[in-house]
Specification:
Layout (H helix, E strand, L loop, with lengths): L3 E10 L2 E11 L4 E5 L6 H9 L6 E6 L2 E2 L10 E4 L11 H11 L4 H14 L15 H13 L5 E5 L7 H18 L2 E6 L2 H7 L2 E6 L2 E6 L1 H6 L4 H6 L6 E10 L2 E6 L2 E4 L5 H5 L5 E6 L4 E3 L10 E13 L3 E7 L5 E7 L9 E7 L4 E3 L11
Parallel strand pairs: 3-8, 3-9, 6-7, 7-8
Antiparallel strand pairs: 1-2, 1-4, 4-5, 9-10, 11-12, 11-14, 12-13, 14-20, 15-19, 16-17, 16-19, 17-18
């Protein structure tokens, strides 16, 4: 059993609070990613779980046992670092066997586990090569193999893909997901890369300097961000934000904004009605804004907005259009590459009222968060 519980975990550096009373529950066999910008404390948190940093307050419980005072070498955990930390003078097979040798594992069991690892990670034929003689992707697999042959209760991964190029990173993400599905280990993964987090995780803990912003599935973090920070950090291109005021016009509930009145869907009518007149921060993803020529049928909750195009950026299959309303609000939306739009052109777009997010400007929390 390898359930990981963080109960009020705190970490201070002098008078600076790095981790502030963090609570997190990671289920047995779950793949969880700690996602956030540099400086938010995610690597420090991982090192605290590994026993490489002390815990100033709170409890770390793994498999029902309190781990705060257990030395790192006695924890049934394995960690893969950003640099992979392979021994440059050791061959691939010796690197993989190293931990088993230190633990005085019987020779027969070492050979059995080595054979399993070489097969699992596609390293057959590379056994006698040094780290400098294999690719970055292969070094990453050796580091993972060295960790997993120890049969840890929890595998800790600290930005292990950051040194790979885009093509290798994509392949490595697929391999990591496959390995997790096969071995079923609890994995805690640290990254600042939202694509890695969204692609591999079962749940994502979105962290900021202020603490835990949201802990949910990738789909929920994207579709229903709990805070302004979570909404802005997840998603590419980034979410559009502008100020507004909740307004009720007849049977319509919506928001008065620099884009005009944006209608909300009927499901949120009652709650919006009770907050009429409340100032809000409005968030809409570019993916939820449709160019008029792409819009086959208009829904009740769709709102038409007229904007002037300022920039068009090619993103491959799609183009990002940066536009501005008559009142100066900037709106970014996407079009397919077969659409030709030029700067200075005026166009119509539709905002999907079902996907409009309203945040309290004082607490920065989503007013309609589930």
């Amino acid at each position: 059993m390898a359930e990981v519980l963080l109960k009020g975990i705190c970490k201070r550096l002098g008078t600076i609070q790095i981790i502030n009373c963090l609570n997190l529950e990671i289920k047995n066999g779950e793949f969880v990613t700690l996602l956030g910008p540099s400086g938010c404390g995610k690597t420090t948190l991982l090192r605290m779980i590994a026993g490489l940093e002390t815990i100033d307050a709170g409890d770390l419980v793994i498999g029902g046992r309190r781990y705060n005072d257990i030395p790192a070498q006695h924890r049934r955990l394995a960690m893969v670092f950003q640099s992979y930390a392979l021994f440059p003078h050791m061959t691939v097979s010796k690197n993989i066997r190293f931990g088993l040798t230190i633990n005085k594992t019987p020779a027969g069991e070492i050979q059995k586990k080595l054979a399993w690892a070489l097969d699992m990670f596609g390293l057959k034929g590379l056994e006698n090569r040094l780290p400098k003689e294999i690719s970055g992707g292969q070094r990453q697999r050796v580091a993972l193999a060295r960790a997993l042959v120890l049969d840890p209760d929890v595998l800790l991964l600290d930005e292990p893909l950051s040194n790979l190029d885009a093509a290798l990173r994509e392949m490595a993400m697929e391999e990591l997901k496959r390995i997790h599905d096969q071995v079923g280990k609890t994995i805690i993964y640290v990254t600042h890369n939202q694509v890695e987090a969204m692609s591999m995780s079962q749940r994502i803990a979105v962290l900021s300097a202020a603490g835990l912003e949201q802990y949910d599935t990738p789909r929920m973090v994207y579709d229903a961000p709990a805070t302004v920070f979570a909404a802005s950090f997840i998603g590419s291109p980034s979410m559009n934000f502008f100020d507004g005021t909740i307004a009720i016009t007849g049977d319509d509930a919506g928001v008065d904004t620099p884009l005009g009145f944006i209608r909300l869907d009927k499901e949120r009518f009652a709650k919006a009605q009770s907050m009429a007149g409340k100032p809000v921060k409005v968030g809409v993803r570019p993916q939820n804004i449709k160019y008029a020529e792409h819009h086959e049928s208009k829904r009740y909750s769709d709102t038409t907005v007229d904007v002037a195009v300022e920039l068009v950026e090619t993103l491959g299959e799609r183009s990002l259009v940066v536009s501005r309303s008559e009142k100066g609000a900037v709106l970014r939306f996407l079009v397919t590459r077969d659409i030709t739009i030029e700067p200075q052109e005026r166009v119509e777009v539709f905002l999907d009222g079902r996907k409009v997010h309203l945040f309290d400007p004082l607490t920065n929390t989503n007013l309609f968060y589930p």
